[in-house]
Amino acid sequence: xxxxxxxxxxxxxxxxxxxxxxxxxxxxxxxxxxxxxxxxxxxxxxxxxxxxxxxxxxxxxxxxxxxxxxxxxxxxxxxxxxxxxxxxxxxxxxxxxxxxxxxxxxxxxxxxxxxxxxxxxxxxxxxxxxxxxxxxxxxxxxxxxxxxxxxxxxxxxxxxxxxxxxxxxxxxxxxxxxxxxxxxxxxxxxxxxxxxxxxxxxxxxxxxxxxxxxxxxxxxxxxxxxxxxxxxxxxxxxxxxxxxxxxxxxxxxxxxxxxxxxxxxxxxxxxxxxxxxxxxxxxxxxxxxxxxxxxxxxxxxxxxxxxxxxxxxxxxxxxxxxxxxxxxxxxxxxxxxxxxxxxxxxxxxxxxxxxxxxxxxxxxxxxxxxxxxxxxxxxxxxxxxxxxxxxxxxxxxxxxxxxxxxxxxxxxxxxxxxxxxxxxxxxxxxxxxxxxxxxxxxxxxxxxxxxxxxxxxxxxxxxxxxxxxxxxxxxxxxxxxxxxxxxxxxxxxxxxxxxxxxxxxxxxxxxxxxxxxxxxxxxxxxxxxxxxxxxxxxxxxxxxxxxxxxxxxxxxxxxxxxxxxxxxxxxxxxxxxxxxxxxxxxxxxxxxxxxxxxxxxxxxxxxxxxxxxxxxxxxxxxxxxxxxxxxxxxxxxxxxxxxxxxxxxxxxxxxxxxxxxxxxxxxxxxxxxxxxxxxxxxxxxxxxxxxxxxxxxxxxxxxxxxxxxxxxxxxxxxxxxxxxxxxxxxxxxxxxxxxxxxxxxxxxxxxxxxxxxxxxxxxxxxxxxxxx
Amino acid sequence: xxxxxxxxxxxxxxxxxxxxxxxxxxxxxxxxxxxxxxxxxxxxxxxxxxxxxxxxxxxxxxxxxxxxxxxxxxxxxxxxxxxxxxxxxxxxxxxxxxxxxxxxxxxxxxxxxxxxxxxxxxxxxxxxxxxxxxxxxxxxxxxxxxxxxxxxxxxxxxxxxxxxxxxxxxxxxxxxxxxxxxxxxxxxxxxxxxxxxxxxxxxxxxxxxxxxxxxxxxxxxxxxxxxxxxxx
Lengths: 772, 232
Fold this sequence. Notes:
The complex is a heterodimer of chains A (about 775) and B (about 230). Helix content of chain A is about 35%, strand content about 25%. Chain A is of the alpha+beta class and about 775 residues long. In chain A, strands 8-10-7-11-9-12-13 form a seven-stranded mixed β-sheet. In chain A, strands 23-25-22-26-24-27-28 form a seven-stranded mixed β-sheet, with helices on both faces. Chain A has a six-stranded mixed β-sheet with strand order 1-2-3-6-4-5. Chain B has about 230 residues and is α/β, with parallel strands linked by helices. The interface between A and B is large, with 37 and 35 residues.
């Protein structure tokens, strides 16, 4: 291709502030990075150019700190059509259909403007999915807040939940699941991670690339304002005392515009008029135009004066950096401009030609014909480019860890009243029923939801190919704070296990890595360890990571959050005898046999029980044997395909006792009456009673099985190499769980609780959250 | 039977209604874009689906009532044709004065997505003839503005003409304050117009028309409409 003619370098506009190291620092660039820019250009950058560099090289857009660490993730597999690096990853799900999904953070915006922060988080992730050509059909979210008794936190919870609902409900994408955990470390920096999943026929798959000399670059969607300028930079620093002043860096969402954009975009992609399309997300026009040019191996010219605006007097710097929501940049085939416009008009939208694909490798910005920015694409977007500012940050095991991870169980008394301990756990905000939250999300629109929120995984059907998709999000900050490597492994294992217990085979992962300030060597060490643990688990389970997001600088004036990698797992559910039959977590039939699969050890460290009942955040997280985990998950899927279990529930926070209580009562919202059980747990001798009940040993699942299928179920467990213990039968008005192990605690101790008591404790914890 | 499912910008449940009517109930169903000024020839029943028409920005349903297609719907209703508004569709019909009353924000001001029970108050309507006397249906709701309200004299007319057709209740059929999810006057979940050919209801029957979705109670209403249309 012929190179684009070089023009004389751009000169400053009369309105431009003077470019200096001081200004560069204000925009988040380091002295070294500022020096690199001078080296790349051989001159001072213009103000517009400085802005473009500052957002493209921000942690949020560049992944300059995290990228070297992420290379350990397995990203390939027989189903992977597109791995990380695009707006969303894409997997084959059979019958000519594919699924695209991704999870992404919107933490800082949500911390200072909860409703809009969370709403636009949902909007952004939906656009990431439908720009791939996929129709979004399910959303989930993972939330972390401080103590809900704190009025400041209550306000955040109300705002975030209303924002997620307000946006997702209006667009018509069901929010089918998620999780919410509460710990004071998230008080000033809550976490809002939003996940979206879509489906598409293979042939509709499109990527965000600009190619084809002379093809028009078109702008569609909402107009551009000054909202969100430097949002990406804002996401790349700590939340300071003055966070409230950054409110102008938070965007404002318009879900109705999003819905129109969604329908119009899918129709456009279907029409074949497009070469590529990309959401204008973080760093708006800048990142979308740079990344599209980079992926297409082309140059790009942008005419900022052609960009539709909602405010007057905007300078090129502002137009290029605006993060106004619900906007897309697309490259159409030359000559199809009118046809593109016609499709948009049906939806009441317009398209403007705002640029052209050029030969060569320059990203240029023009205002009224005058060149205001002229930069090499690769230096902005290619992390292999010699001038790209990848950072190898120092790492050091943090000082707190050895002491915090040590735990002398002898100093902790086994509670006399184990029933009371269980009720306390069930009523604690992290474990309590979350209907107050889920009830604000439409989880059934599109009539695909087979397992609604309230089971380990949400399961939806794909009408188009007759299969099901199961999905779950998981993460445990406390585990990762006390043992990031193990915590990383456990997060991946649990997310996949949640999917597997429903009967679906885990086929792909997306991750959102929420950590503190990476300039602190201790936090960098947490990051590196957790990511390695996650990669090990993903490899051991044979599940590729196909998309994800890194969110650093999650800390307020009082310090960093717990390291919180969140994992979203997606599984494929095959029909059995012509129908989809996902396995729920709740007991369904009186007289069914109850089994516990997996090994129980004396593992109370880093657990919910220590935190809630003893007020301790100590000890090492449970160990996980990844091979045993893989066997267990295969067993779950196989058993479900043979229709052996009637229910299956993963054991996690709060251990066997909490899981059993949930099995008894969680069916009620799904039309299955609460059902007790009489269980006897003959555990390895010497283990404390509280560890048997509340310990969180990994790789365990509680099943209920119809008596007629018990033999086949036991045989399959044996053949699969999965340890299986028979506990007793479902039925009756109470949960009775007797322990037989000879460990500390009253002999024959255990639980005996009426279901009404369990329900009262579990279901009412969030009542009154409306009142501030 | 021939159903026309309206499609406004912002409609969300249009395809769900198409699926329930077409794929599940095996009826002829067609999407009708809001800019069309007439209904497909031979339309028996118009379904105004749920969603957020025009973003519900001004007031739920307030803009949709002015869409070109609504004139055709008014004419269809005037001639006695069936019109069925679900959720946002109910709000549109209320704004259009095709059914009496208004829908206010839920009493706790929160959006609510949950299963509720509703009691069928009369069997001799075009939308409930397949129900048993006093049958209790388990149906999902998903709305922020479903709190039905009307003036006392309107309420009296509704009662006199037996226009209240669905009431929120508990599993046993008791309509109490506890079983009222959104604060609706008299636990009203669905009302008819005076002639009985237009129904507005907040719950979503199309979401429970297949066992795989956790219930089939919504079919009772679809089957009723089919019966009514067949016997006409």
